Amino acid sequence: YLKKFRAYHGFDTDERTLSRFRALNSSDNVHLYNELLSPTHLERLRPDKVLMIGLLHHLPDSLARELLLMLGQCDSIRRVVTLDILYVPGHPLNNLITWLDRGRYGRRAEQYLQLLQGSPFRASKTQLVESGNRISVFYCMCLDRK
Fold this sequence. Notes:
Number of helices: 5
Helix content: 25-40%
Shape: globular
Radius of gyration: 16 Å
Strand content: 25-35%
Distance between the termini: 28 Å
Order of helices and strands: EHEHEHEHHEE
Largest sheet: 4 strands, mixed
Protein backbone atom coordinates (compact mmCIF):
# COMPACT_ATOMS: atom_id res chain seq x y z
CA TYR A 1 0.00 0.00 0.00
CA LEU A 2 2.99 2.29 0.33
CA LYS A 3 3.71 3.90 -3.01
CA LYS A 4 6.59 6.21 -2.22
CA PHE A 5 9.34 5.85 0.36
CA ARG A 6 13.08 6.35 0.57
CA ALA A 7 13.66 2.99 2.26
CA TYR A 8 11.51 0.36 3.93
CA HIS A 9 13.04 -1.77 6.67
CA GLY A 10 10.81 -4.56 7.92
CA PHE A 11 11.46 -6.73 10.97
CA ASP A 12 9.64 -10.01 11.65
CA THR A 13 10.53 -13.28 13.28
CA ASP A 14 8.27 -15.29 10.96
CA GLU A 15 10.23 -16.28 7.84
CA ARG A 16 7.02 -17.28 6.01
CA THR A 17 5.66 -13.77 6.42
CA LEU A 18 8.92 -12.27 5.18
CA SER A 19 8.97 -14.62 2.17
CA ARG A 20 5.44 -13.58 1.18
CA PHE A 21 6.42 -9.93 1.53
CA ARG A 22 9.54 -10.44 -0.61
CA ALA A 23 7.46 -12.13 -3.32
CA LEU A 24 5.17 -9.09 -3.52
CA ASN A 25 7.73 -6.33 -2.98
CA SER A 26 11.04 -6.84 -4.67
CA SER A 27 12.81 -3.51 -4.73
CA ASP A 28 16.29 -2.23 -3.97
CA ASN A 29 14.94 0.02 -1.23
CA VAL A 30 13.06 -2.75 0.63
CA HIS A 31 15.12 -4.48 3.32
CA LEU A 32 13.69 -7.29 5.44
CA TYR A 33 15.20 -8.80 8.58
CA ASN A 34 14.30 -12.10 10.24
CA GLU A 35 14.95 -10.77 13.73
CA LEU A 36 13.57 -8.54 16.46
CA LEU A 37 14.05 -4.79 16.18
CA SER A 38 16.74 -3.53 18.56
CA PRO A 39 18.09 -0.14 19.67
CA THR A 40 21.16 -0.86 17.51
CA HIS A 41 18.93 -1.08 14.41
CA LEU A 42 17.28 2.22 15.30
CA GLU A 43 20.64 3.93 15.82
CA ARG A 44 21.87 2.70 12.45
CA LEU A 45 18.70 3.27 10.40
CA ARG A 46 17.48 6.53 12.03
CA PRO A 47 13.85 6.09 10.88
CA ASP A 48 11.46 9.02 10.91
CA LYS A 49 8.26 6.97 10.66
CA VAL A 50 7.39 3.57 12.07
CA LEU A 51 4.50 1.40 10.92
CA MET A 52 3.34 -1.29 13.31
CA ILE A 53 0.71 -3.02 11.23
CA GLY A 54 -0.80 -6.02 12.95
CA LEU A 55 1.89 -6.07 15.62
CA LEU A 56 0.53 -4.90 18.96
CA HIS A 57 -2.07 -7.65 19.19
CA HIS A 58 0.81 -10.16 19.15
CA LEU A 59 2.54 -8.56 22.16
CA PRO A 60 1.61 -8.70 25.83
CA ASP A 61 1.28 -5.31 27.51
CA SER A 62 4.78 -5.43 28.99
CA LEU A 63 6.49 -6.03 25.61
CA ALA A 64 4.30 -3.49 23.82
CA ARG A 65 5.28 -0.85 26.39
CA GLU A 66 8.97 -1.83 26.11
CA LEU A 67 8.76 -1.42 22.34
CA LEU A 68 7.16 2.03 22.63
CA LEU A 69 9.84 3.12 25.10
CA MET A 70 12.58 1.84 22.78
CA LEU A 71 11.06 3.73 19.85
CA GLY A 72 10.81 6.83 22.01
CA GLN A 73 14.55 6.73 22.68
CA CYS A 74 15.21 7.14 18.96
CA ASP A 75 14.98 10.91 18.45
CA SER A 76 14.63 10.66 14.67
CA ILE A 77 11.16 9.04 14.94
CA ARG A 78 8.46 11.64 14.39
CA ARG A 79 5.40 9.41 13.99
CA VAL A 80 4.30 5.85 14.71
CA VAL A 81 1.20 4.36 13.09
CA THR A 82 -0.44 1.21 14.42
CA LEU A 83 -3.24 -0.93 13.01
CA ASP A 84 -4.59 -3.90 14.94
CA ILE A 85 -7.60 -6.10 15.44
CA LEU A 86 -9.82 -5.24 18.37
CA TYR A 87 -12.86 -6.26 20.33
CA VAL A 88 -15.87 -4.06 19.58
CA PRO A 89 -19.10 -4.18 21.60
CA GLY A 90 -22.01 -5.26 19.40
CA HIS A 91 -19.81 -6.89 16.71
CA PRO A 92 -19.93 -10.60 17.59
CA LEU A 93 -18.43 -11.90 14.31
CA ASN A 94 -15.54 -9.43 14.51
CA ASN A 95 -14.99 -10.40 18.14
CA LEU A 96 -14.93 -14.10 17.25
CA ILE A 97 -12.36 -13.44 14.51
CA THR A 98 -10.30 -11.42 16.99
CA TRP A 99 -10.50 -14.24 19.54
CA LEU A 100 -9.43 -16.82 16.92
CA ASP A 101 -6.50 -14.73 15.65
CA ARG A 102 -2.97 -16.05 16.15
CA GLY A 103 -2.23 -12.86 18.02
CA ARG A 104 -3.32 -13.62 21.56
CA TYR A 105 -3.52 -10.02 22.73
CA GLY A 106 -6.49 -8.50 20.93
CA ARG A 107 -7.71 -5.55 22.98
CA ARG A 108 -10.51 -3.04 23.19
CA ALA A 109 -9.72 0.48 21.92
CA GLU A 110 -9.22 1.88 25.43
CA GLN A 111 -6.77 -0.93 26.21
CA TYR A 112 -4.63 -0.02 23.19
CA LEU A 113 -4.61 3.59 24.42
CA GLN A 114 -3.55 2.43 27.89
CA LEU A 115 -0.36 1.01 26.33
CA LEU A 116 0.72 4.61 25.76
CA GLN A 117 0.76 5.46 29.47
CA GLY A 118 4.34 6.15 30.48
CA SER A 119 5.50 6.23 26.86
CA PRO A 120 6.82 9.31 25.06
CA PHE A 121 3.91 9.11 22.60
CA ARG A 122 0.34 10.34 22.52
CA ALA A 123 -2.41 9.31 20.14
CA SER A 124 -2.92 12.38 17.96
CA LYS A 125 -5.57 10.53 15.96
CA THR A 126 -7.43 7.25 16.34
CA GLN A 127 -9.83 5.61 13.97
CA LEU A 128 -11.87 2.44 13.60
CA VAL A 129 -11.30 0.96 10.14
CA GLU A 130 -13.73 -1.58 8.73
CA SER A 131 -12.64 -4.31 6.35
CA GLY A 132 -14.04 -4.16 2.83
CA ASN A 133 -16.71 -6.72 3.70
CA ARG A 134 -17.49 -4.88 6.98
CA ILE A 135 -17.02 -8.07 9.00
CA SER A 136 -13.77 -7.12 10.72
CA VAL A 137 -12.88 -3.90 12.48
CA PHE A 138 -9.36 -2.62 13.07
CA TYR A 139 -8.03 0.10 15.35
CA CYS A 140 -5.61 2.65 13.93
CA MET A 141 -3.57 5.00 16.09
CA CYS A 142 -1.36 7.83 14.84
CA LEU A 143 1.19 8.43 17.56
CA ASP A 144 3.19 11.63 17.88
CA ARG A 145 5.67 12.64 20.53
CA LYS A 146 4.22 14.26 23.65
